Amino acid sequence: MRRLPWTPIAAFALIVVIALLAPWLGLANPVSMDVPHRLAGPSAAHWLGQDEFGRDVFARLIWGARVSLSVAVAAAALACVVGTTLGVVGGFLRGIAEILALRSIDVLLCFPPLLLALLVVTLLGPGATTLIPVLALVYLPGFTRVAYAGVLTARSQDYVEAMRVLGAGKSRIMLRTILPNIGGPLLVQFSLAMAAAVVLESGLSFLGLGVVPPAPSWGLMIGAARATMTQAPLLLLWPCLALTATILVMNALCDGLRDAVDPHPAYRPTARRLLDALAPGLLPTPRAVLDLRGLTVEIDTPHGPIHPVRDVSLQVFPGETLAIVGESGSGKSVTSLAITGLLPGAARVISGAACLDGTDLLRLSEDRLRNLRGAAMAMVFQDPGSSLNPVHRIGDQIAEAIIAHRPMPRAQATSAALALLQRVGIPDPARRLRAFPHELSGGMRQRVMIAIAIANGPRLLIADEPTTALDVTIQAQVLDLLADLKRERGLALLFITHSLPVVAEIADRVAVMYAGEIVETGPTAEVFLNPRHPYTAALLRSAPVEDGPAPEGIAGVVPPPTALPPGCIFAPRCDRAAPVCTTTHPALEAAGEGRAVRCIRWNQP
Ligand code: SF4
User: Fold this and answer.
1) Are residues 260 and 296 in the same domain?
2) Pocket of ligand 1 contains residue 600 by CB under 6 Å
3) Which of 24, 115, 175, 532 is packed most tightly, with the most Cβ within 10 A?
4) Is the CB of 599 under 6 A from ligand 1?
5) Which residues, given as ranges, of the chain have pLDDT below 50?
6) Do both 165 and 136 map to the same domain?
7) Could you tell me the pTM of the whole model?
8) Which numbered atom of ligand 1 lies nearest the CA of 578?
């Protein structure tokens, strides 16, 4: 465990202690009225003034904290326990448990949160005790989804397999191995649920469906102050300030705790995420390291031009991994070659832009592009055996890569190469520095390629099937190394693969390509849990799942760029195709938060 977040802990403790000690702080009675002095401003006797009934605002603020905080913490804790249990049981046991857990959550998600809360409060009647289960019900699906996705990811890891091999039982694996690994995301979810519960409690109290007057709560205070805001605007300010400060402290606390319990070195723009959670859209979206817009590639053939990549747009942000996944011939590698300006002679980009930190790579001269390759952007290829020069020593090849962009004495470059070999986990790096590529294993050669790729601190790393040639154990180590480097350095990682398990392990977001087009994009967990394009769903069904149903192949093959069908290109292989699909080419359209899909029927039953 790293250093605890003492500042948020102290701030949260202060808020809780003040709220708990309210009866002993010598405050004025929060419900006693003094109508002759209604709306009086701050004074020595009433530090924050008096409300519309002459009640002491300071006392009501402190007593209101007791109600608002206890409702929010209890609701978030209840949602966390029930939601996490559902997600963990569903993800770990699979089968009927998974169906029951996820379908019940899907039913809850059909209702907008505020409507669901209004419905249940109307049925059960207002009151602080009713609010706790109501708010728990609203925030429960978030915990289930986070836990479920976390368990699915963790259960396929080698360390879980290792525990099984050691003879550990299911409950031990769950408690000792999987739960600690999903603790971080759950803590973040807890902080968000707690902060959102404070806001929703205030909203429901404001509507008269939460805490019953005259008991004080921040929501009631805001609701009452609204009616008199022209005469006494400060009455609105105090509860709003208290609400905002408490939520900021809660978020900082849970964020800090998550960082403290997560042993991974991390690239975390904490302040930015905190503000994003509190006020979505307040801060501008960080600029994408890679911003690809409408990329179309043309290749001349004896039968005329073909377009293996059409209108491809994607963005990769700092500290993020975007995986491009699809079968052979889907255009993944052509896209990456176009970005780096390494397309073969017969191919050319005919439209689009590929901006790396704002510079359009497609419009640069070859000299400028060469300066950026290996410096601002780097690539790791599939076969490290053929990517390393067989007649030069490893150390010389890494030093060469460094000196190509940062001229320095050879000895200095060699010591930098040694540090890089250490960083990528090569055992006995001083000796390996003098080794030739054939003296290293496949996994070590790929680590050397990664060392060369990061030698000059690139902002964008493109990894084109970097683990395909490796066996499963080495593959997992290389993926871990890439994920660590991404977090450490805030790299934008564009990962190209045909393997869905690899995507699940490494990618934050995924772009599914089919026959030269992106057919679906979105956060990996959401796309995998709820694919919206029939091709994505078919790809998922074709991947082997431990203890799951037998994989199903996808009928047919990817059409070649010379013989694309009319309408939807996936129509000949699609089990949902309708007559309209063969005449209308679907556009990539928004399909929910951060998601897009290219299918006419994605939202039809
Ligand atoms: S548009 Fe029609 S054919 Fe294409 S993926 Fe959607 S349902 Fe299938």
Assistant:
1) no
2) yes
3) 532
4) yes
5) 1, 264-270
6) yes
7) 0.59
8) 2
